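Predict structure. Chain length: 683.
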Amino acid sequence: MQYGPSPHAVMGPPPPPGSTGPPPQLSNGYHVPNVYPNAPNVRLPIASNSLYATSQQGGGAALMASSSGSPIGYGYTPAHGNYLQSRAQKQVLSYAPSADHRIMLEFRGVTRKPGAAAPKPLWDLYYVQDKVKVSIGAHRIKALAWEKLAPRWRVHTNDFPLTAEECHIYNKNWVEIIPKDPDINVISEQFYKANPKNPAAPIFKTGKYRVDLCIPWAIVEAFEAYQLQAAAAANANDTPSDDDPVYVERTAATSSSKTAPPSSKKRRPGRPKAPTSQASTSTRPQTRSKTRPVVNRSEAPNTTQSTANPLDAQEDEDVDYPGLEDFEQEQDKALEPSGSNHPNPTQTPSAHSRAAWAHALSQQIPPSKQEIGSLLSLTTLTVHASVAKQLTLNELLVSKPKASRGNLQSYLEGPITITLQLDLRPKSQKVGGFKMACFGQSFPPLFADNSICAKRSFYTTKGSDGVTNYLPHPTQRQSQDLMTEMLCSTWAAALLENVYDNIDRFLAAHSPGSLQTLTIPRMRFVRAAFAAEGKQLLPASSRALFLLEERIHEESEGKFRKYINNRAPIPTSFPDGANYKLTHGLAFVSDYQGGDTLLTDPQVMSDPSLGDIFATGNIPSGCQDFPAEHTCNKYCEYFKISNDFDPMPEAASSNDNGSQMIENRDRNPEPSGEERPAKRRKQ
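Prediction complete.
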């Protein structure tokens, strides 16, 4: 390649046909300073592509930089404007070892605190992209990582400001992945080895390559600070103002950025909302029975959500295309008879209007490939399901059932035979910390409707291709895990029910005018059932087992979210404190998560002196450190929960009216008959 003055710098190019006078002399650079009158005035369109511009080095970059700001003069046509872009594309194809060689990229969203030994993974910012060309370049890797992880960041943080330019990509050894010239084959050497028989044709072996999309620590720290402030504001029944310094600083920094993150539509960055549930708007909630019936989720309020759960994450192929649903709704409205909704199904066929006939007939279209595929992917199982009983605390304390010794009938209702239709494909599994879940239906309905969520405990294996496989535990281990989860859910539901019973008694003891107005959310844990595959020809050790639960529908319950975590435990301080006092400091419920009114996957924290009980997440320090880490919120103050956490006297725990459990701020507790271990008396 010749670098230097243009060959026509002295003589100049030949004049175009029909022109008068010689053409102007070109300078010694690469652009035309004077535009010839009869020549097309064309600019290089690729000059506006900043991503491409930054990826070029050497003569190509110099040529583009010189010509990007000046028009192309005599001797050039509009086709020349695409020369650099076309050359780069052909260059990538020519250098690629093979277009058929594909690998997998494992994307993780991480951050790294200054001075930390290793990066820290962030929440559910994780995605595996398969069928990626091994010749991929650094810019394309970063674009893919941002495309897959940015939506999850926006869901988890509720659009906390972040741009792609603020992030960097690293490999598993924390070496930054930077572009080459040309920007191809930045990671291909990891998948080729020398071929002794033919050195010119290296041997390719596919695999998985980890890419960490590093979000600056300052941004993560700012989000966590704002999250704590939002939780504190929710505790004070207030919302942070728009002049919050953390939010203003991050929003200003984002708005000043030249390149916006890829998105289908512009959205104003929002602050993370405090996790609240407005299930009740009156001061005095409705009185509930001892055994609460299953709530119709279609009647539950839909409120704003915050954090997404890994089990509820959707894959790319499940994304709805915008505008289609709106179009179908408008079409349905146009076909409906005027002045009425859908036709009355009790009418005779001759009584329906022409519009009603047109509407019904127009819906009979062939199913799509996706609809057929989802139908064929379902697995049908016949199972024997035993629904967990709704036991009160008194029933649990008096009967003292020992589930570990085979007395499971104390916790379960009689088995019924049902048919399950589940999507058990690996890509349809929603993987959490201890269990994986899939959605399906039961016939006849096991709960309020046919929809169910089927959960199983799992273990992981690595395939020969490096992909992590999630497999359900064998039957013996599975039965122990699922029954432990069911026992934990039974106790958590009874403890939460007891809190609401005491709230009802407290409100009944006070006249409506004597109390301030306070919104009290009404929530419960989902009903659950233990299900075992009913094939008689299979040995008991080979049958599939499931923990079936009511499905938490996003349409009626809002986005799946956590109401408490290790950083912001304030929203559930009231039920935690009430349960801790009620159990004499022996247990309380943690991990409140779910929708507006339905909760799932609870964890009961217990004193380590009770032994290894309940589920895997029962951390001994959780109950030991509760007195020191508990922070009262507005509900504690409203119901007068004291913060001393001394053991309750035996008489108070058996009081029928239950008022002492809540209204005990001014009570001096008498010494308990059973002293707690000294290590738990933290002040």
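Summary: The chain has 18 helices and 20 strands.
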